[in-house]
Design goal:
The protein is mainly β. The protein has two helices and 16 strands. The protein is globular and about 50 Å long. The N terminus is likely disordered.
Length: 308
């Protein structure tokens, strides 16, 4: 279904509970907005690809974890038509790390506050969000006090779901008719980075490499901790909107603690498989002599969309 620029799309809320398990042991109201799983591999149907700029290499901002991504209509200034929100989640037993940086050096540093790099594009229609979990009518309603970081961007050409949880393993309601539960979400600009300006100050940057933002546990969550971390994540989302937040459900049908594999082949030619890794897979490599770390995710790690 094509989404016209007169429809307002929802902020992808990546509700991420990443669990790193040793394989051997098994073991706002808007402040500044003025405009107005399973080991089974999932085949992702990509959105139609716009005509690329001749000779240009696409550029993506890639989100890992718990994000609320608002999409706004054409009445909003070009550079503010997307707002990526990392919620503040006080009281989590296993806290989220908030870090970002370029894939070039994989140096991810802490972020907080509000970022508006002033990027603009010539895109005239909203990107397609068909199949993504959506909270209709909730854009612009996140409490400012519950935002750890937010980033304003122009509309991307594509929103690409990566590393999807098997939808047959997910129980959900109040989220539209989702068919994808992506653990990683790519906001893709077909003509390259809109401007050679770092999107978040004091983070590593290269316009020639994709830019990653994380909001998830640094070194994983044990299998026995998954249910409680899932509850903490869902509570964080609900409380981000105040006492009368959205009513929805999103949970696995059973707690089987299985890893979600990366896409093979990759779902986008400009995104390599390792860019789908969770923060735990990047920052917490396995000890010498051990088989490896399994990244176990829950469906609440999937990005949610909020519409106006």
């Amino acid at each position: 279904m094509a989404i016209t620029r007169r429809k307002i799309l929802t902020g992808a809320a990546g509700l991420c509970a990443t669990a790193a398990i040793d394989a051997m042991s098994g073991g706002l109201i808007s402040q500044t907005h003025k405009a107005t799983n399973s080991s089974q591999r999932i085949k992702v149907k990509a959105a139609p690809t716009p005509t690329p700029c001749p000779g240009a290499t696409p550029f993506s901002i890639i989100l890992h974890g718990l994000f609320l991504v608002e999409l706004w209509d054409s009445n909003t200034p070009n550079e503010q038509r997307v707002r990526v929100i990392s919620p503040k989640c006080p009281g989590m037993k296993i806290p989220h790390e908030h870090v970002a940086g370029s894939w070039k050096n994989q140096k991810f540093t802490g972020i907080s506050g509000f970022s508006a790099p002033g990027w603009v594009t010539e895109r005239e229609e909203m990107p397609d969000i068909t199949g993504l979990p959506t909270l209709a009518g909730w854009a612009g309603r996140v409490l400012n006090s519950r935002i750890h970081h937010s980033l304003y961007l122009p509309w991307p050409d594509l929103i690409i779901p990566l590393r999807n949880v098997d939808p047959t393993t997910v129980s959900h309601s109040g989220l539209g008719t989702p068919s994808h539960f992506p653990l990683t979400l790519a906001l893709t600009y077909q003509c390259g980075a809109p401007k050679d300006i770092v999107p978040i100050n004091q983070t590593d940057w290269s316009k020639d490499f994709n830019y990653h933002i994380f909001c998830e546990p640094k070194c994983g969550v044990g299998c026995d901790q998954l249910p409680s971390h899932a509850d903490d994540t869902l509570r964080c989302i609900s409380e981000s909107f105040g006492p009368n937040g959205p009513q929805f459900t999103l949970k696995p049908k059973k707690w089987d603690c299985k890893p979600v594999p990366k896409d093979k082949p990759p779902s986008a030619s400009h995104i390599i498989s390792d860019e789908e890794n969770a923060l735990s897979e990047i920052e917490c490599p396995p000890p010498a002599g051990q088989v490896g770390i399994l990244s176990v995710h829950l469906p609440m790690c999937a990005s949610l969309i909020l519409t106006q």
